[in-house]
Amino acid sequence: MPQDNNTAGFNPIDAILLTLEFLAFLLKAVVRFVVSVFQLIVPPPAADVSGDIVLITGAGHGMGKCMSFQYAALGATVVCIDINETTNSETVAQIKLKGGNAFGFICDVTNREQVFEVTKKIKEQVGVVSILVNNAGIMPTHPLLQQTEQEIRKTFDINVLAHFWFLQALLPDMLTRDRGHIVAMSSIAGLVGLNNLVPYCGTKFAVRGLMEAMFEELRSDPRKPNIKFTTIFPYMVDTGLCKRPFMRFPNLLKLVNPDEAAAAIIDAQRRGIVELSIPKYVLYLNTFMRIFPLRTGQELGDFLDSGVKSDL
Fold it and tell me: How much is the pTM?
């Protein structure tokens, strides 16, 4: 008798195994959710960074400078990277004046060869970097059609490509030592599109993507390396980078103090938090709003009426 085509490919054992696999996935998902909620209430303990070498790009100004001071105060050895020798040297000098340990190196982060040369010197003169903070960034704020080719290329070179160069230069030693942490500055502009920031938003969305992809790439590595990743999504920070901000509800969405932002970033790194927005609720709000139609999120943005004006 010919076999029924509907049952020819049916294997009850495979069906049972697939069902069990799916139930195991559901159980893991529930456990992950419960653990995540618990960690929101009781965060994991902060790691000691006193034995770490922390490399921070853009250390001569703003959040990079604040993070340099705060990491040094925690006992870490801080490697300050900036293209501006004067401001970078000031950061190093102030850390040393307070008894901290810091080294300064001048580097154009957009130049891959220079990045590799500088990181080689750092390894020889300071040691192996265990925490990388890709912080350097620029933010031209005017409509896309008024942005020059040079501005757009420079924005991507500093805000995105520099991340790749430092990762390629420093990750091999982290993998060899089976220890490292990568921190990257995305932005609220890496969660939602904003007027006058089209190239900038493009770079910050790209940072989010490269960090997620790197996390997955190493998660699938059979060596299971102990490399951690933290992506930060700050709202507008009062560093001078954002020149003409506006907000309808300044008590709800006000400019973030750079010292407070730096403290939140370092705390997230020390606790192994994968993603953090500043303020913290913005990331959760954005995730929640993605459930609704796109127009709903746009209407919320219209209601909050927050952003940057053109600097032209």
Answer: 0.87
